[in-house]
Structures are given as structure tokens and as C-alpha cells.
Amino acid sequence: MREPKAFFALAAAVVVGSLGAVMPLNPAVAQSRSGERVLIDAPPGFLESCQRYAWLCASGDDASLQPSPSQLLELARRINRRVNRSITQLSDPENYGVAEYWTLPANGSGDCEDFVLQKYKLLLEAGADSRDLSMAVVLDRRGNNHAVLVLRHVSGDLVLDSLSSRILPWNQTGYRFLAMQSHADKSQWEVVANQPRDSDVLAQR
To answer: Do 1 and 7 contact (CB within 8 A), yes or no?
Structure first.
């Protein structure tokens, strides 16, 4: 993930300058002094993906299809492992000859955003509520730009990651969350103000 450097710099600046209240078990989005959430322009690659894939920015659910919390967690585990094993990590310049291109990895290779899109689509097809899925941009443990999928679950916010076969609570990834897709409006992004703190949620293995 290299193209949205300006996006990451802006998100980081807003994180430093924002004050927000911690929301238990969930990545807390920044809030202005009036209590409103701090929105940020979505990464350009995301906007193009929304035009290509209507499901990415659509909100809604089909109650008849929704799996139980335990079924959803098992589905997420299987999908995370399957996608990670079936797709080869490859940068967009190597894969498509462009700096940044967020797309489903139809050719069997892709970068972190492409892994996220594939998992997102498979979870939706399995009955997950779109309002419980959000793309997020982070700084990984080495300080590199990275994208992950956040699953809102009764046990807390869990992270599906192209760099790990395990699904972890977000505060056990070691990542610094900068911004994420809004749960309420899938076409918008919100700044993450408060970073992970100690939690009673155990790692999902």
C-alpha cells in the first residue's frame, strides 16, 4: 500500500490533534468538541473500488442469512486462512503496472487491499452484515502502511490480516490504527483517535 501516503499523513495528523472518547472493545473514532465524528476523505483506491463493486459501499443486511456469532467467527477464520493461502502477495506496480489499484485478486495475486476486498466479499456472501465489516488503514509494527479488515463481533472488533492466519482482537495486533470505513455509512471514512488499550478479549485462534 504505497499510493495514499498523503492520506496516511493527514490521518496521522488528525489523530494527533483529535480528542475522542474510548469506546469499549472497538477502535474509537475521533470526535470533535461538539461530539461529532471526525470524517476524512477516503483513500483514492477505495473510491474507485466503490464504483467497481457496489457491495463495498452498500449498507444493509438480510436477517434471514445472518450467521450466529459463533458461526460468523468460524466463517471469518476459514475465509481468512483460505484467502491468505490462495493469494500471492504482489505489489500493484508489479501486478498491474500502476502505483495503486484496489481490486479483487482475479489473477491470484494482490497486495493488502486486494486481500481485504476478497475477504469482505466472501463474508458478505456468507451472510455477514455489511455494517459489521470495515476496511481500515494502519501502520504495521515496522511503521509501514497496511490495510486490514475489521469485523465487529460480540466479543470485540477482530482483525482479518493478510500477514497472519490468526484473527486477533484489534488491540493485540501491534498496529497503530489511523482511519477506518464507517460502520454507519460505508462510503465514508472516520479517523481513529484512541489506540488499543488493555482488553479482556482473548486472541481468536
So the answer is: no
Whole-number percent of the chain with pLDDT over 70: 74
Q: Mean pLDDT over all residues of the chain?
A: 81
Per-residue pLDDT tens over the stretch 23-69: 333 566 655 544 456 888 898 899 999 999 999 999 876 656 789 99
Q: How many CB atoms lie within 10 A of CB 129?
A: 19
The Cα-based distances of 12 to 4, 5, 91, 134, 174 in angstroms read: 12, 11, 23, 19, 16
Counting DSSP H helices and E strands in the chain, the numbers are 5, 10
Q: How many residues does the chain have?
A: 205
Pairing of strands 88-89, 109-110: parallel
CA 142 from centroid of its chain's CA atoms: 18
- Residues 29 and 134: beta-carbon distance below 8 Å: no
Q: Around 78, how many Cα atoms within 13 Å sit in the side-chain half-sphere?
A: 9
**By the 8 A CB rule, do 165 and 81 touch?**
yes
| Integer Cα distance of 128 and 29 in angstroms | 22
- Between strands 189-194 and 28-29, the pairing is antiparallel
Q: Nearest 5°: phi and psi at 82?
A: -65, -45
Which residue, 118, 101, 86, is CA-closest to 46?
101
